[in-house]
Give the backbone structure.
Amino acid sequence: MKKLNFHTVSAYLPNILVGMLVVGVLAFIGIFFSAGSASVATWTDLGLRLTYLYCIAATMLIIGFAVHHLIQTWRESKGMIFGVLGLVLVWIVSRIISSGKLEGASPKLLEQLQENYGAGTSSMVASVEASLYTLYVLILVAVGSLLYAGVSKFIKK
């Protein structure tokens, strides 16, 4: 019996994907040729479940390949890992400094938010505010990196 490792799984990957496609096509044909009992809800339900299945499979494959690559190239991947940790740190700091209050918003907007989102309004506003702070910091880092690269290139000449 073959030892099951990453390379044997990746060798069978095209067969697995074709099998998933065949399952989807067979389900589609089965509903299409059923005796008039297939409703729009059945089609939608089937499509939704197949989409969930394919998204879960794709996510598992992406994470699996990424983890496998990180394990095999640990020393070369340190910079990338530090970059991801830096992004997470920036988001955490942004989330901590965000207030979650809508200052200066119209009462009508506040009423609509409360009606649509209920008790989660403050949390939602804090998440949006933290995301904006993260965006601002990342834009500043990008512009700073470009300026640093330009100035250092200019100085070397």
